[in-house]
Every structure is written in C-alpha cells, then in structure tokens.
Amino acid sequence: MLFAQARTETALTLRNGEQVLLTVLIPVALLVAMSLMSVIPVPEPRVASATARVLALAVISSAFTGQAIALGFDRRYGVLKRLAATALPRWLLVAGRVTAGLAVVAVQVLVLSAVALLLGWRLPPVTGLLWAAALLVLGSLTFGALGVLLGGALRAEVVLALANIAWFVLLLIGGVALGVDTLPAWLGVIVDALPSAALAEGLHHAVVDGAAPALRHVLVLVIWGAVAGALAARTTRLD
C-alpha cells in the first residue's frame, strides 16, 4: 500500500509542469549560472561549491515549496478528505507523501550531479558522499515537515503565495545562494540558525571538503524538523 501510494504521489509530481520547473529546471539553470558566471560570489572550487548549494535549493524546492503547494490544493479540492475515507490509514498517507518527496529529491540529485560532472565537478571521497546523502535525507524530512505545516493549515491561495515568497527569501538571503559569511554580521547570526543555511553549509562541508558537517548544522535541522512536525500534527486539516 505504501509503495502504491508513494508511486502515485511521485508520478503526479513529475507530471506537473510547474513542479518540474521548480524542482529541476530552475536548479539546473542556477547551477550553470553559479558555476560559470562570476557575478555571484562562490568559493573555490567554484563548481563544487555551486553544486552543494544548488542541492540544498533542490531539497527546499521539492520538500518544502512543492509539498506545501500540493498539500494546500489537495485540501482545497477534497483529495485528502476522500483518501482518508478509503482503506488507507492516515499515517500511510503521510508516509506516502514523505517517500514520494524523497524519490523526487533522488531524481533531482541524479540530474544535478550529471550536470555538475559535465561542468567539471570532481566527486568527493566516499565519506563525503555518505555525509551528503545523510544530509539530503535529513533536509528532506525537515523541509517536508515545514511544507506540511504550511500547506496543511492555510488556504491554498495563501499557501501558494507564502511558499513562493519563502523560496525566494531562502534562496537570496537564507544562506543558499550567498554563504553566511558573505552577509552582514547581524544578519549572518540570524541566517545561521535557519535550516536552509544549515543544509547548504553542511552539504558544502560534505561535497567540497569530503568532511562531516558541523554538529550545529545537524542540530538546527533536527530541531526545526521536530518542532515543525509536532506543530503540523496539531494543525493539519483534511479540508
């Protein structure tokens, strides 16, 4: 049942043109731009640093923005209410969405990694790849919980606006496109506590240095995910 539900959710996501634009085309375009254009300050090695940050953006795009918008409109059109009336238990509906989100992230990682290799990216040591995989899973769960929190409590139109605004804010000043150390000191302190910066910086350590992420970055992701999950369980509505 879980496999069937996850397969359906994944297929619906990948068939949606807007979702493909958000989860694949924009991250690929940004990866190429950050790797080849000197307008955006990116540490050396440039391609590896850009790859780490765009992987973080890919997780945010699919697990948070895409998840929130899809959930908001599923509630609006009564999809969740109808599914809840079937033999599928509620926990399996949630697990199916989470599994589908991880499947979409896996597709994103494969596409972005292939493009990065064409741009000259050299794979890090195996330990770095393992840490990157663990961070991608943890980041997907954290931003998935945030996406459910947003999409499960507000009207679809409000979710659409807030999710897209949040995506742009996290990209520009959330520690993704610009590193925390490039921001003003007062803003850097705030951004360093955001899950977007924690994921981007953690992936930078894994992908560029082949090293383990800083403990504070892991803790930031865990805390945000736990709090968002607990709140989502209380506030998510089926209609």
Automatic annotation (TrEMBL):
InterPro entries: ABC2_TM, ABC_2_transport, Nod_factor_ABC_transporter. Its main location: membrane. It holds the Pfam family ABC2_membrane. The chain crosses the membrane at residues 20-42, 54-73, 94-123, 129-151, 158-180, 214-233. It is found in: Membrane. Keywords: Antibiotic resistance, Membrane, Transmembrane, Transmembrane helix. It is a multi-pass membrane protein. This is ABC transporter permease. Residues 8-204 form the ABC-2 type transporter transmembrane domain. It comes from the Bacteria. PANTHER family: NODULATION PROTEIN J.
